[in-house]
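Students often ask what a 'structure token' actually looks like in practice. Rather than answer in the abstract, let us consider Ionotropic glutamate receptor C-terminal domain-containing protein, a protein of 640 residues. Its sequence is given first.
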Amino acid sequence: MEINGKKSICHLFLILMLLICFQLHSKAQENESYKEIPVGVILDMGSLVGKSVHSCITMALSDFYTVNSHYKTRILLHDRNTHGEPLHALPAAFDLLEKTKVQAIIGLDSTPEAKFLAVLGDEARIVILSLSPAPSFNKYPYFLQIAHDETTQFKGVAAMTEFFGWKDLIVICEDTDNGREVATFMANTFREKRISITYSSLVPTSASNELVQEELQRLSTMQTNVFVLHTSPSLASLLFLNAKDLRMMDGGYKWIITSKTMNFMNLMDGEVMESMQGVVGFKSYIPQSRDLEEFTLKWRKEYPLMEVKDMNAYAIWAHDAVSALAMAVEKQVLKSKSATNGSIQRDTTLLNQILRISFHGLGGTFQFRNGRITTQVLEVINVIGKREQRVGFWTTDDAFTKNIGKPNSFLDPCLEAIVWPGGTRTNPTHRVLQTRSKILRIGVPLQPRLGRVFQVTYDAQTNLMDISGYCGDVFQAAFSALSREVAFQFIAFTNNGEVGTLDYNHLIDRVQAGEFDVAIGDISITANRSQYVDFTLPYTDLGLGIVSRNADTSMWIFMKPLSSELWVVSACFFILLGFVIWIFEHRMNEDFQGSPGQQIGTTFWFAFSTLVYAHSKLSNLCLSFPQLKQPSESSIWYLC
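Now compare that with the structural description of the same chain:
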């Protein structure tokens, strides 16, 4: 019995060892069958956005290959840190291409970086997955944008402006190439809704506190009280902190911010949130799902030291993008026979595969259209206290709604009640600010130079002034066309107090110095004056012209177009021409023979007649090279 027991134990031990060896062998074979596909990641690893994006990419690959363990490919990430400098992105990309032979690059959340690598991606024929929301990258087929197009929301801003009945607004953007491009997009979008942009303010990205205060003070003096802000979160924080100090976050003001700031509200501190009370913004919509909740909990456990605890849209888009890339790589390797030594052919095949990918990810439906992920819905957020209060949604159908998928009721408003700056829930009109607005000071020259174009009536005792004439009528019509009443005051302009010795250059100087806000009158637009002040578009033709009666009836009036010296020179050339022709023709041409008087007359007649008609006797009267074989014959010359 003991011997049989020992044999059974030995058999079990051998079976266990065989199973372990089989598992190890299978695992080794499985590992050997993987093809590692190098993929580059270029991010600012020191920023909160860069950290969250990189962590989500890493977790996404781990979760993806855990679920799809049968895949024959594995993406191997190669990280590069830009340290917040966009210029570092290009050498990092070159390094990834030359040393690691990457097949795709992920990252690039800033527009300057994206512009550098968009060109590089087309030249190297590798897929670039960019987090940049900027427009105007459609001409680069290898440059795929996984962030929503930032220009889509401008239609939502225009729809909100129209919804509340605002007729004009002020746009604040960054003083960059992208900022100026975005300002143009906004202007075109608002123009379709007949909304006027009173002023477009371009603020440098690294603006100082003093510069921001100066710009906001200038904006506060304008009649418009609706502001649309499209800047980075850091610049937006500085603007709102100073706006609160200048009492521009009080009642009567309206602030609308775009997703460029709203998507990163979870990164802002309490002081900034307090200064943004009543702000309304558009935010990229990420639908809530069980998968997103589970991934967020797992992410918090994996990275407990992360400064932020909430996922942002960029991290979720990066998660879905790397999952799509893993699917495309697997399909490409299975279809491509040229996949050897762990690399795939850099061709349109990988690009085509990823463009065909469509699945439901953490951020919703993931599918490329025209080289980027499209969005159909944006959240409308109201900043109240220390939280973001959703007041509704805006869809690309140009409609607001409280709930996705549910039609609006005629009795129910499209949006929840919005708390505006100052704590009011009503939509304040521009009249609230009218009492705080300064009176527009308009400089008027008392004695204009062109009485019929511009006339001024001035009463020195009452200091009242009235303007008329063409310039005055244009001014009155322009002000009457405004959507609001603007208080203005005419101020008489004299040169050192002496009427009649007006110097319009001095009037321009006083406008530049701030003594006058505006100057009207028969003022000519010159290059020198345009360097100091802005002129309206000219509303007359090319300037002044004087029409007078021509009293000259002389028969020699036809000689007026040319000077006397030119007439003399022309006559001398005609005489010289006739003399040259006579030298060559009088020996053999009978027309140039006869008495001296006849020869002179024929010569002059031929020279001057060339002005009015072409001669037909080209054989005798035209110049050409002489024939070498028959020197005795008459030579042929061409004077054409």
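One point worth highlighting: The chain has four domains: 36-149+312-374, 151-257+265-286+376-430, 438-530, 561-621. Ask yourself how you might have guessed this from the sequence alone, and why that guess would often be unreliable.
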